[in-house]
Predict the 3D structure of the following.
Amino acid sequence: MYSIQSHDPRHPANLICSLSNQFFHKEWCLGTGGAMSIEDETSNCIYVTPSGVQKELMKPKDLYVLTKGKEKNQYDPVYTPPLKISDCSPLFLACHEHKQAKAVIHTHSQNAVLITLLYDKEFNISNMEQIKAMPSGAVDSTTGKQINLSFHDNLCIPIIDNKPHEHDLLESLEKVFNEYPNACAVLVRRHGLFVWGPTVDKAKIYNESIDYLLGLAIKMDQLNIPM
Amino acid sequence: MYSIQSHDPRHPANLICSLSNQFFHKEWCLGTGGAMSIEDETSNCIYVTPSGVQKELMKPKDLYVLTKGKEKNQYDPVYTPPLKISDCSPLFLACHEHKQAKAVIHTHSQNAVLITLLYDKEFNISNMEQIKAMPSGAVDSTTGKQINLSFHDNLCIPIIDNKPHEHDLLESLEKVFNEYPNACAVLVRRHGLFVWGPTVDKAKIYNESIDYLLGLAIKMDQLNIPM
Amino acid sequence: MYSIQSHDPRHPANLICSLSNQFFHKEWCLGTGGAMSIEDETSNCIYVTPSGVQKELMKPKDLYVLTKGKEKNQYDPVYTPPLKISDCSPLFLACHEHKQAKAVIHTHSQNAVLITLLYDKEFNISNMEQIKAMPSGAVDSTTGKQINLSFHDNLCIPIIDNKPHEHDLLESLEKVFNEYPNACAVLVRRHGLFVWGPTVDKAKIYNESIDYLLGLAIKMDQLNIPM
Amino acid sequence: MYSIQSHDPRHPANLICSLSNQFFHKEWCLGTGGAMSIEDETSNCIYVTPSGVQKELMKPKDLYVLTKGKEKNQYDPVYTPPLKISDCSPLFLACHEHKQAKAVIHTHSQNAVLITLLYDKEFNISNMEQIKAMPSGAVDSTTGKQINLSFHDNLCIPIIDNKPHEHDLLESLEKVFNEYPNACAVLVRRHGLFVWGPTVDKAKIYNESIDYLLGLAIKMDQLNIPM
């Protein structure tokens, strides 16, 4: 069963609110920008932010709770607040469905927007220690755990063009799933960043690491340091 | 009836104080700079910040409370603290009067000052996701709700020249009301930004979104990225 | 009588500690850098920060308390913590003595250091709204209150060269007192900023406003915007 | 005897957690990056951060506690959390062993990464007031206290190349110990900064001061100001 009220700070509804507040103060989610979803491992419900709510003021009762329906790609609301659901929700559900994501983070990070204006189809970076916090896509055959990238490996984040409506990005996102099977993130030109992960902690760590690497790449550009 | 003491964090006097504190920490209101006004929907009173008070230390008892007088454009104080009223108050009252604003935010944001030195009469930006948080000026004829800008739309913020005294900006502000009927903000050269909205939440969201877009435009200029 | 323990947040010992903490988080006082003094109007005692203490951890019991001695420029400690007094203390006392300062703030602001590398003898700025938070040096003959600068006025902050020991800056500081009788601040090359004021609130407001203006000037330089 | 639970905020386990949180908010330890160790003077135990934990969420129970073994350079765990120990731990232990460090701080500071891309073998800086917070390596023969650098002295921080595994940096680090006997820090190219000190307070002050100086040097480069 789902719940939206819990004293556990690790409950998905509380995590979305505390992370939304943190991301607001990182200036990633200003002016109601950005969105997030978390899939609860016990109830299999997916918690999704509404649209139009100031991220630092998000409350558990503002969140949508969805459950998997009988049809493919169908999700039914089990809890509906008096608010519109985030326009990103089809993108989030696709990440949960096709990438086995347990959490998806979307921000309007200025680093992300600027990188999409400096790079065309992909952002690539290697030889940076922080890359080691990112997944390679490969899995250790004995432990079943994800293997992270090594220092000399290349991190590639595909860039797609923005569309007037966020749900219209679904086709481009699914193309990314096919063409970049190891990607855990996609940059949307003049818009921001989507990051997904096998746990909410991993998604947050990937999101933070990517933003750090994007920020470094921008400063290197300003200082005329080649990549 | 008006009040200046309330336990409700959404009371206008408390909102002005909590937002002033937040804006101080955003570095928008340093050295007592900036000001704010909120019109209370129940009492029709307008709460206005005093001048010369450090924004992070603002208290409800420091605020002026004004009520609409019998004459056009006349407002009478119903609560007067032992402080001077913000020199911006005639500008704020004009926004409440002519633009049906319920809240007006004025900051000395460095992004705002710098943009007025990079652009002459107007700041224009389009094709940025964050623009979708801004109002188009149009209203949905069935719901009566404001329609926001779309991704490809142009956001135009007029720029006016500063004057030695803030109240002398009134003529230029009224000219903006006439020439840019859809504007919800005006930049003042070498001074800062004024933003108004139909609710205090909207005014805050517009203010945050504009500052985000101004900041992006400045970074694009530094990185030689064309608009 | 002096005291170092008080529940009043406006007590000088508490103000030095809360402002030191605030200035640490502004990155003005990293690595124990910076210092502050406040003269208590009731006891005439001067509270001075010690050297070598992390500014975010400063406690009232860490502060020196000095009282005016019988000789000119002589101050005797009435409370001595088990720490060295700030090496700036002769400069602070000169500001209290010759400029009737009730508070002196010294930071290692990066904006201050950079401006001293961009300008030679003086930093001048005019036509910026924030200048109106700064004192002109003139006093209103009827009210006895300080008159602030107007928008078009010039704010001039003299720059002096650094010396190996802070107390060796005294001669240059006294020269500034003579040559710039209206100055309320001095920049020290490759070192930082000293600001004094007739109250601790004024000194803080001047310090914040100057740092804001220095920051704007640096960004204007980066964006090739002429002053 | 060691303990991992204490109400004393100055207990090593609590200090590592509060500093890790502070360093996360300084953006030095994003995405689980960075690490720290503190040697407890009373128990001679060394507390070391685990790998893979978000720094703002670090808890005392997550830390490793090591004690000196009978063999040279051998340390045995006396408390083992269900986490991997930081891959930096051999580097930390070398600092404790060979440099008599009581604390070692490792961050992924962007300033540190960028400086290693602007400078080759060493970063040198002089004539900056903040240098006076840094140790010269010399000791006062009467007091036995470390003597800090003077304003005109040169601060030299050696730069070493990164390796795929952090423990493989040990050889380069030991070479730094030999070639730069007065160094209290080393920059690792495309990785970050390691700083050690005779107390945790000193290590923190050195780390803060170095990052401040690196940041200044980068801004000077951007503003075309020669060093």
Notes: Residues 200-222 of chain A form the longest helix (23 residues). Chain A has one domain: 12-222. The helical segments of chain A are 12-25, 89-98, 110-118, 170-179, 200-222. The longest strand of chain A covers residues 154-160.
